[in-house]
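[step 3/7] fold_predict: job queued, chain A
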Amino acid sequence: MSLLSDVLTSVFSRNTRRQLLSRPDSRSTEALIADLLSGHGEISGMTTAAQILDRYGALDDQGKLAFFDHISGALGVDIPRVRAALDAFEADPGAKTYGEFLRSAEPTRQELARRLNRVPGATPQLVAMRSDLLRLIPRNDPRARIDLDFQHLFASWFNRGFLVLRRINWESPAHILEKIIEYEAVHAIHSWQDLRRRVEPSDRRCFAFFHPAMPDEPLIFVEVALTKGIPGSVQRLLAEDRDALAAEEADTAVFYSISNCQSGLAGISFGNSLIKQVAEDLAAELPNLNTFVTLSPIPTLSRWMKEEGIDADKLNEDELQALAARFLLTAKRPDGMPYDPVARFHLGNGAYVHAVHAGADTSDKGMSESRGAMVNYRYEAENFAENHERFAAHKEVVASKSVRALVKTAAAA
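[step 4/7] structure written:
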């Protein structure tokens, strides 16, 4: 029924969208935006919003920059109005003055985005619009402040409460499977047969978050291997000739690939909820599972070694393993956070560094990014909160005794 509902919603949305666009409007885009914000009737407003979105979609990059110029300048905050509203609220802190302050403090472009989003099918277009914004405008450009408005809205629109977790398997619709192949960002899927090996066997799982407004677009997905023991090589984990394990015999769930699918949702956090929800579901399905870990890349290790003047070609596997441990526990950005983005993600979720492996990813990408090193981050429900607080409050990287011992080895070398 869920699939049928998605199909019917998609059909009706397309028909409604065609009706809204059946009478093209000759006014400028700026005039259409002003009209949409003037607060006319719902149907006429949806028609105007559809025209704006249709025009934006047809623009080249120069036209999109002009669009961002307009909403950055003309649709910002009215500073005198904010000051007056704040003064009124301070003088009489009631519901009416508070409401006026909230309305005045919000940039007009946020209301524009809400009204655009009333059009059927508008949500993915607005996500694509933010993707354009991130691609076209540098962070230090004054227009980049528009992104704070997108982030504010998307954090609410894509709240965990609205997301739907679905299992992806070999019987999933072909267009969904195609997108798993397309969006896989960690370990490339080279063919349909390669995909089948990741989603069909009894010891393999794949889960994705979807949003009701984007039922055909995964937002983020995770690939899971069910194993006996904690693995230290992704090539062995994904070997074509491996023997599948009966799911009931597994004691470990390995999150070996997590891929964000929508560049326009960068920075909108789903991964934390996804991992924990999948872990809960797997534990309920398979009571023998008692260990939940990742087998994660270390994508910035080679870059850091180059910055530190370390000749990677002179390292043996033991030295590389110790150096990778030192990197994960001690290499920091100027703000004190870990240098590596994957480390920041998992440590921020409450995991800890469990083990480091050399020779773990011998693919071209793995060798280029980390000289083949990988890491297990371990998730333990009883330590989630404590580990997260230690990391969030003190930027402390929690690690196992064995990993801390490796760091001492690296320091002594």
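[step 5/7] annotate
Residues 224 and 255 are 5 Å apart (CA to CA).
The first strand starts at residue 164 and ends at 167.
exit 0
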